[in-house]
Amino acid sequence: MKVDHHKAWSPNLDQEMDLNVYGEEGKPVLVFPTRGGRYYDYEGFGMVEACRPFIDKGSIRLFTVDSVDFQSWLNEGIPPADRARRHNQYDRYIVDEVVPFIRERCGDGGIMLHGCSLGAYHSVNFYLRHPDLFDTAIALSGPYHARYCVGDYMDENVYYNSPLSYLPHLTDPWYLDRYRRGRIVVCVGQGAWEETFLADTRELKRIFEEKQIPAWVDIWGHDVAHDWPWWRKMTPHFLKELGY
Fold first, then answer.
1. DSSP output for 1-54
2. Which residues contact 175 (CB under 8 A, 6 or more apart)?
3. How confident is the prediction for the chain on average, in pLDDT?
4. What is the domain-level CATH number for residue 10?
5. Residues 6+ apart with CB under 8 A from 121
6. How many domains does the chain have?
7. Based on the number of CB atoms within 10 Å of its own CB, is 123 exposed (0-12), middle (13-18) or buried (19 or more)?
8. Which terminus, N or C, of the chain has the lesser number of Cβ atoms within 10 Å?
9. Is 36 a residue whose pLDDT tops 90?
10. Residue among 17, 149, 20, 162 nearest 92 (CA)
């Protein structure tokens, strides 16, 4: 498997950002790290190895990016409004810098999003906000309401980054038509440390059904914990089921 590392200055974030690329061809998959994680965590926790069969046969190509979660949603040293503004800068980094980087290597087709825990939140939020760029998402064990990070605080920037806040009120056919043509998988367990994520997933499922968005929401068993061993099982399962 070919592995490339890239470091570049981000004008949107005003700092250097790293990412890794695994594989040479196939569907581009933009992978967000877990809560406050780094670009190398996906490999470090065995997820790249779990995806190796799909990479080796050229079905997918992974692009694992850094987060700025501890500067944004998880930064308790600044007000929630500033956390949301920092996240919006990360949004521009992904859209204006990472997406062109991927397209230079993979062409102009749709990009898959994938992540676990807070990475699942990023996957769903970016999918819903930018359905012209991302056509597939696999989100595992994520929170989907901003209260997970900022409590009851709400302003416009927080609202439009909180899927369980904005999606119920979204009626624009430009978005809804693209959601209905895309593919989104949301999965969660019912075991240890999954309580908050299970509740958010069930609420997201209800909204998807109400909006007639054909999402695949899969709730696994009571033995399924919020942890890497299960995500290493879930990810190849869904890649296979989606035809990769």
1. --EEEEEEEETTTTEEEEEEEE-SSSEEEEEE-STT--TTHHHHTTHHHHHHHH
2. 128, 131
3. 97
4. 3.40.50.1820
5. 115, 139, 142, 143, 144, 148, 163
6. 1
7. buried
8. N
9. no
10. 17
